[in-house]
Design brief:
The chain has 234 residues and is an all-alpha fold. It is built from nine helices and two strands; from the N terminus they run H-H-H-H-H-H-E-E-H-H-H. The chain is 75% helix and 3% strand. The longest helix has 38 residues. The chain is globular, with a radius of gyration of 21 Å.
Length: 234
């Protein structure tokens, strides 16, 4: 039996880890965008968002465990992405030096596919900023709301505060374009690496992955623009 460490460090193992962690993150993004869509409903949606936040907070220690697990998935995805990128670059240099030419199946090489590490790092920086504004930033605030007789964070107030500042609107809008690009290629790449597609499915699934990436990014992208227009008096 192949040792787990050796299996994970193989080419197939690295791609498998990237695929599993990537799919898990896509699942999180879908749930996150669905909850954030309530912001399009204005103050009523804000009440729904605060109630959802209170519901999650009611899990107490379990929520902390889930957040730590999610953070671990993010870190694993990023670390493995960097490792794969560095090893691929080293392999290309060796093949070039030895005159070896390799050819695989459909790769869908494009500016997006070649920039996955860049878009990924941009999203990582964004994640830190987002956590600071919406997770750490709510500590010590005095505008909590009462839900079910219990004080809860006023996430809606934080969203209004953040997205009525033009610099934040521009930043979030730009980063969502990177998210759309990253997901568009990443979803297809994950399915391919896990061996879940036949060659004939490659182009259709790439189109589906691109569509999902665009829709998810668009769902997030227009939230700060909507709030800025409706709440800042523009």
């Amino acid at each position: 039996m192949i040792p787990l460490k050796k299996a994970l460090d193989s080419s197939i193992g690295r791609k498998f880890v990237m695929s599993i962690s990537g799919i898990a993150l896509v699942g999180f993004i879908i749930s996150h965008v669905l909850s954030n869509m309530t912001l399009y409903l204005g103050p009523e949606g804000g009440v729904m968002l605060n109630e959802y936040g209170a519901f999650l907070a009611s899990f107490g220690p379990l929520l902390v465990v889930a957040e730590i697990g999610l953070a671990a998935v993010f870190i694993i995805h990023i670390v493995w992405a960097i490792r794969i990128t560095l090893r691929n670059k080293a392999a290309r240099k060796q093949n070039y030096a030895s005159g070896v030419v390799t050819k695989g199946g459909p790769s869908h090489l494009s500016l997006v596919s070649r920039s996955m590490i860049v878009t990924g790092l941009v999203l990582f920086v964004f994640l830190i900023v987002h956590i600071w504004q919406f997770r750490i930033g709510k500590v010590g605030r005095t505008d909590d709301v009462e839900i079910g007789g219990v004080a809860a964070s006023n996430l809606y107030a934080i969203a209004i505060e953040v997205f009525t500042q033009p610099i934040n609107v521009a930043f979030y809008t730009l980063v969502m374009l990177f998210l759309g690009a990253h997901l568009s290629h990443g979803i297809w790449s994950s399915l391919q690496s896990m061996g879940l597609m036949k060659p004939a499915w490659s182009k259709p699934l790439y189109a589906v992955g691109a569509l999902i990436g665009i829709l998810l990014a668009a769902g997030f992208l227009f939230i700060p623009i909507f709030i800025y227009i409706t709440q800042s008096g523009v």
